[in-house]
Amino acid sequence: MLQLVNSEGQTIGVADKIDAHREGGSLHRAVSVLLLDEAGRMLIQRRSDAKYHFAGKWANACCTHPLVGESIEDAGSRALREELGVEATLTEVLQFTYEAHDPTSGLTEQEYDHVLTAVWSGEVRPNPNEVSTTEWVSSGDLVLRLIADPEQFAFWFRQILKELACHCRGSMKCPPALARFAGELQDAFDLSALGVT
């Protein structure tokens, strides 16, 4: 069951996962994890073609929905273990809401998203049921791919990148590696090309 929330992020109920994404969706709590390595590259994953929505899209390291009674950090850690075989200490850096419709599945995301980050330079072991492949990318490489085809990336990941570029640079909440990555994105890229608000 997912945690339904109001616009302030306060829990107001619960819902089945698929029900929360049908008929325009219901606002619910989510977690997105960003991993950077010691060289300042970001890990991206191509979502498995078997995913129930936004299948095959490139996105951040991993995402999940906190279970009822589960903390944000514990949910992020669980997703890292289950999807990538990674154990890392996570820090929350921002929160935002977004809505995105997937025309292929007919499902809609309405999420109050908590973005967590960690630095990781160890082995990544993708779970093939969740992840088709992973890549470590520099900010420059990511910018080139975004310019070439922004739609290959999941909507929420593009929104995260815009939020980072607008709010993370110089922020005390953002670890130095992430702040540098956000600054490089902001310097190199017209954020309006991300196709998000």
What is the average of the pLDDT values? 90
**Separate helix tally:** 4
- Shape, please? globular
Structural class estimated from helices and strands: alpha+beta
How would you describe the oligomerization state of the chains in this entry? single chain
- How far is the first residue's CA from the last residue's CA? 29 Å
Strand order across the largest sheet: 6-3-8-7
What is the CATH level 1 assignment?
Answer: Alpha Beta
Name of the CATH superfamily: Nucleoside Triphosphate Pyrophosphohydrolase
Q: Architecture, according to CATH?
A: Alpha-Beta Complex
Radius of gyration from the CA trace?
Answer: 16 Å
SSE order in H/E notation?
EEEEEEHEEEHHH
Counting DSSP E segments of at least 2 residues, the number of strands comes to 9
> Hey, roughly how much beta strand do the residues contain?
25-35%
The tally of structural domains comes to 1
The low-confidence runs, each spanning 5 or more residues with pLDDT under 50, are none
Helix coverage percent = 10-25%
CATH topology title: Nucleoside Triphosphate Pyrophosphohydrolase
Q: Biggest β-sheet: count, sense, barrel?
A: 4 strands, mixed
Explain the overall architecture.
By secondary structure, the chain is an alpha+beta fold. The protein is built from four helices and nine strands, in the order ββββββαβββααα. The chain has helices spanning 72-84, 139-148, 155-167, 176-188; strands spanning 2-5, 11-15, 28-36, 42-47, 58-59, 62-64, 91-102, 107-119, 131-137. A four-stranded mixed β-sheet has the order 6-3-8-7, sandwiched between helices. The chain has a three-stranded antiparallel β-sheet with strand order 5-4-9. Strands 1-2 form a two-stranded antiparallel sheet. Strand 7 (91-102) and strand 8 (107-119) form a beta hairpin. Helix 3 (155-167) crosses helix 4 (176-188). The longest helix has 13 residues, at 72-84. The two termini are 29 Å apart.
